[in-house]
Amino acid sequence: MPSRIITVVPTVTRSTDTAREAWELLFELSLANRARLMASLEEVDLTFPQAHALRLLDPDRPLSMSEIAERLVCDASNVTGIADRLEARGLVERRAGDDRRVKALALTPKGVEVRRHVIESMRRPPEAIAALSRADQRALRDILRRAVGLSGR
Prior knowledge:
This protein is mainly α. The protein is 63% helix and 8% strand. The longest helix is centred in the N-terminal third of the chain and has 30 residues, at 14-43.
């Protein structure tokens, strides 16, 4: 009896097609908004990784370099470079934690002001979202909130 080779071809469900399309649209919207965000960050002479690091820092709670690396999803050596540049500009300072071998980053008063600008820039919705009706904005927010909750963040 001849052997038969069975090929398993995954079926793509409609919800998968819809999920892919939704993700592509979110990605396109993000790319379209990138130029505006980058221009705003250039006003305060920051790269996106530097701005993201500032956004993560709570003015009342320094973060260890390893915590920042984890939240930025990057190597600790990258955080060292980011911290060096932010520190050279007077936006952060390194502090020793309970374990003196662990360095934490804390915002300076100037860093708090620049962080405020960064957060305002990142929170400003693109025109395409601002132009939606309030009901559509709420629906989009609620759906994205659920998706973020499912992602574990």
